[in-house]
Amino acid sequence: MNIQNNLHEILTKIRHYELKYGKPNHSVTLLAVTKKQSLEKIQAAIDAGQKTFGENYLQEALEKILFFAHENLEWHFIGPIQSNKTRKIAEHFSWVHSVDSYKIAQRLSEQRPSHLPPLNICLQVNISAEETKSGINPDEIISLVSQCGDLPNIKLRGLMTIPAIKKTLEEQRAQLHPLKLIYDDLRKKINYIDTLSMGMSDDLEAAIAEGSTMVRIGTAIFGERIK
Ligand SMILES: *Cc1c(COP(=O)(O)O)cnc(C)c1O
Q: What residues flank ligand 1, with Cβ below 6 Å?
């Protein structure tokens, strides 16, 4: 497992797809997803220049954030959020991608320490209408966006989704496309919205084709997760 090579390969693909689909160079950010990956692998990614990392499980994330505190990294929380976990999330992360209720947004805003800049958030949208997935329905986006606008210590940056698994590029694109339309619409109304968080190891190309600005890649960089 050569993390440096994998990272380089993914970044090369991202730049290639930006070009292929007419997106500005470097308009897509790479979030390296390190849940259930070892400290050694994370260190290798840091040594290769990666600064932005995503984690799903709070306890595991806090240990890693502490361990790498001297590295000046940017941590994104991307996992399901229980309300009793919001305080630690608000204290230790720069971004949260998985906000799916006003209650959670409100708690994150209230609990964000005053010496830190506003917490960047994305609303998680369940575009595939899968019962098992968290996220709001597309028709709930507008009202949650306007509610979040009144919260002082969070900054709404955009939308995030975890789509159902599809095999072909066409199927993957078709599934992501409606969210891109909603995102574009939202940007016309709120000028500081700039983030469409979609795309994982298996749908990277489709996500960039459909206008993703932040891809969340785990196994393609770090290999299979432990456990
Ligand atoms: C695990 C995870 C990823 C990364 O998935 P890979 O298939 O390993 O690239 C991205 N986003 C979320 C929300 C995840 O939980």
A: 33, 35, 56, 78, 162, 200-202, 216-220
